[in-house]
Write a structure and sequence with these properties.
The chain is built from 13 helices and nine strands. The chain is of the alpha/beta class. It folds into two domains: 162 residues, NAD(P)-binding Rossmann-like Domain (Rossmann fold), CATH 3.40.50; 121 residues, Orthogonal Bundle (N-(1-d-carboxylethyl)-l-norvaline Dehydrogenase, domain 2), CATH 1.10.1040.10. Strands 3-2-1-4-5-6 form a six-stranded parallel sheet, sandwiched between helices. It has a three-stranded mixed sheet with strand order 7-8-9. Helix 8 crosses helix 10. It starts with a strand and ends with a helix. 44% of the residues are buried.
C-alpha cells in the first residue's frame, strides 16, 4: 500500500483515482468542486482534502490531472498548492496534457524543494481511464520514474520513460498531431464512401483488416456514421492540445501543415455547435458541406 493523493477528478481523474483505491492504496483526493470529491470518497471509501497542499502533505506520490497550464500552476505552486505540503523524497506525477515548458519549470521547482517530478500525460480517453488501459508517456529522472511506475501501472497498459522533464509532454504532442491527421483521413474516407454509394459499414469491415486500420477506425466509425458525437474527447480540448503543439513547433522549427489545416477544420466544427463533440465531429463538418452542394 502506498499513500497517494489525487488532484483533479474530471472524466479522467475520477476513474484513475478509483483504480488506485481499488488496488489497495491509501488515497486522499482534492477537487475544485468539493461535491465531486465527496461523491468519489463515498464511492471508493477514500478521504477528501480541503486544499492541494493538504492532499499532498503525507503522500508518497501525488497525482494531478487538471485542464491547462494555469490550472496546473495553481494546484502546485499557487497559494495552497501541493508543492507547499509535499515531503522530501515524495514524487509528483502530472497527468495533465500541458506544455513542456511548465513541466520543466515544475520539475526544477520540485528538485529545489527536495522531491521528484514526472510529467506523465496519458492517451486512451475516458474509456481507457475507466478500463485501466491508458498509455502513459513520462518525462523525468529514472529514479523518480521508478518510484511512480509501480503505482501508475494500476491504470496503465503501457508506461514508458521518454527522457528528462518535458519529454512526456513532447511525446503527447506527437500523439495529438498523429490523431488529428488520422481522424480527418477517416472522416474523408467515410464521406467519400457515402458519396460513392457504397455501404460504409461494409467498407470499414474490409479495410480495417488492412493497412488503413487504426484505433480511431475501430472505435469511432460506427458513431460517426450514426451522427453521434456527444461522447469522447472534446473538440475544445483537442484544440487546446494542438495550440500547445503549434507553440512548441514554433520553438523547435517543426513543420505542421496538415495539423494546422485540421485545426482550422476543428474551428469550423466549433462554429457548428460542436465545441463539446468528440474529435470525430470532423465527419459532421464534411457531411454538412457535402449536403450543401
Amino acid at each position: 500500500m502506498t499513500r497517494v493523493a489525487f488532484i483533479g477528478l474530471g472524466v479522467m481523474g475520477y476513474p484513475m483515482a478509483g483504480h488506485l483505491a481499488r488496488a489497495g492504496h491509501d488515497v486522499v483526493v482534492f477537487n475544485r468542486t468539493r461535491a465531486k470529491a465527496k461523491a468519489w470518497a463515498e464511492e471508493y471509501s477514500g478521504r477528501v482534502a480541503e486544499t492541494p497542499a493538504e492532499a499532498g502533505k503525507s503522500a508518497d506520490v501525488v497525482f494531478a490531472c487538471v485542464g491547462r497550464d494555469e490550472d496546473l500552476r495553481n494546484i502546485t505552486i499557487g497559494e495552497v498548492g501541493a508543492f507547499f505540503g509535499m515531503k522530501p523524497g515524495a514524487v509528483f506525477v502530472d497527468h495533465t496534457t500541458a506544455s513542456a515548458a511548465i513541466a520543466r519549470e515544475l520539475g526544477g521547482e520540485a528538485r529545489r524543494r527536495g522531491f521528484g517530478f514526472v510529467d506523465a500525460p496519458v492517451s486512451g480517453g475516458e474509456q481507457g481511464a475507466k478500463n485501466g488501459q491508458l498509455t502513459v508517456m513520462c518525462g523525468g529522472t529514472q529514479s523518480d520514474y521508478d518510484k511512480a511506475e509501480p503505482v501508475v501501472s494500476v491504470y496503465a497498459k503501457r508506461c514508458r520513460l521518454m527522457g528528462p522533464a518535458g519529454s512526456g509532454q513532447l511525446t503527447k504532442m506527437v500523439n495529438q498531431i498523429c490523431i488529428a491527421g488520422l481522424v480527418e483521413g477517416l472522416s474523408e474516407g467515410l464521406s467519400f464512401a457515402r458519396a460513392a454509394g457504397l455501404d460504409a459499414l461494409a467498407v470499414v469491415d474490409v479495410i480495417s483488416k488492412g493497412a488503413a486500420q487504426s484505433w480511431q477506425m475501430d472505435n469511432r466509425y460506427k458513431t460517426m456514421l450514426e451522427g453521434h458525437f456527444e461522447h469522447g474527447f472534446a473538440v475544445e480540448w483537442m484544440r487546446k492540445d494542438l495550440a500547445i503543439c503549434f507553440a512548441e513547433a514554433k520553438r523547435n522549427g517543426a513543420l505542421l501543415p496538415v495539423t494546422n489545416l485540421v485545426d482550422e477544420f476543428y474551428a469550423e466544427v466549433e462554429k457548428m455547435g460542436g465545441r463539446r463533440w468528440d474529435t470525430s465531429g470532423l465527419f459532421a463538418r464534411l457531411e454538412a458541406k457535402r449536403g450543401a452542394l
